[in-house]
Design brief:
158 residues, Histone H3 K4-specific methyltransferase SET7/9 N-terminal domain, 39% helix
Amino acid sequence: MKSLFLYFRLPIRNGDTYAGEYFADTMHGFGVYRFTNGHHYEGAWHEGRRQGLGMYMFRNGEIQSGHWQNGVLDIPSTHNNAYPISPVGVYHSKVLNVVQEARQASERAYDVAKVDERVNRAVVAANRAANAARVAAVKAVQMQMNHVNNESFSIPVV
């Protein structure tokens, strides 16, 4: 089944960047958001907000991971697989799986941008070649017209 998500690498007005899945003009699905201050979030998005499993990394190395609800860490993850923190506990291994999905979506977004760049270069080259061919054709027609005009209006020399 084909995904309805598009992959984008978006620069945000304040200098932040997002790379990942994009749907209905917003971050939606898996992706990576990098803040200009050095922090970044990798994980699930829903309608432009951190939603679901994900990991927020501060530039000082501190990490907050777990389940996010409306952009806020709702249930922190635990490294203890035997006894979760609460009945609705989130295992860190599950968060890492989602982070891996977000990173893959981010890589796909960068790949799409690379393909777009190559396509744009090819279009520019094709346009240049078409313009050169058009100029050559016009010059050929002009030369032909000058040749025909010179023969039909030749002045006899006596």
